[in-house]
Design a protein that fits this description.
Shape: globular
Radius of gyration: 23 Å
Strand content: under 5%
Order of helices and strands: HEEHHHHHHHHH
Number of helices: 10
Oligomer: single chain
Largest sheet: 2 strands, antiparallel
Distance between the termini: 86 Å
Helix content: 55-70%
Structural class: mainly alpha
Length: 208
């Protein structure tokens, strides 16, 4: 009987070890009263966004993110492959709410919305720039913008026009965020005139 119980205990230990290795336990987050809340991609991205906005890009590490979520760092990799994918997903999330009007020629309105979406989020412009450098194909906003620009600029020019406009916008936003951070004052809520004029000038230059 004792031998049987020992074998059963050993079997439980092996079972626990196997579950840890396969990540069956790593995919949950413990919250209060020993309850386990499933860890998913949305929870990871929401927490990453909060960390970015509060502390900036330098403090957004996978280890810090795991600590905030109350899980082992390895648990994150079941949902995001690496930090590069995390940044690309964050960039897409920040820009996903930018609306694209049905009418053509509304590029000013689109990039005014880009400004208002990025300017309040600490180092958001740098996150988007990194996502573009790592893999521009992962940024859904760029695909939507390219499609929107196909009619006014032509299908061959549209990808370059979209990429150029985004980089011009990011440059202005990054500059404004830095200026207001150093001055310890809040950034503007609306796109300033130099930003809007630069977007219009680049867009006009690509018109067919």
């Amino acid at each position: 009987m004792v031998k049987s119980e020992k074998l059963k205990a050993i079997g439980q230990i092996y079972s626990c070890t196997a579950q840890l290795k396969t990540g069956k336990w790593a995919k949950t987050q413990r919250i209060g009263n020993n309850k386990r809340v499933p860890l998913n991609r949305d929870r990871i991205l929401n927490t990453a966004f909060t960390l970015l906005n509060q502390y900036g890009l330098a403090d957004l590490s996978m280890r810090r993110l795991a600590t905030e979520l109350g899980v082992a760092p390895g648990a994150l990799y079941y949902h995001v492959k690496n930090k590069q994918e995390l940044l690309a997903s964050l960039a897409s999330r920040i820009l996903n709410d930018v609306p694209f009007p049905a009418e053509q020629g509304e590029i000013d309105r689109i990039f005014a919305d880009v400004y208002s979406h990025l300017i309040p989020v600490k180092e958001a412009a740098e996150v988007v720039r990194l996502a573009l450098a790592l893999d521009p194909n992962q940024l859904q906003f760029l695909d939507h913008l390219t499609a929107y620009l196909t009619h006014p600029t032509g299908s061959q020019q549209a990808p370059l026009a979209a990429l150029t406009l985004v980089h011009v916008a990011l440059g202005f936003i990054e500059q404004d965020q830095t200026r207001y951070l150093l001055g310890n004052s809040p950034p503007p809520t609306e796109a300033p005139l130099p930003y809007r004029e630069a977007i219009r000038a680049v867009f006009t230059g690509f018109l067919k």
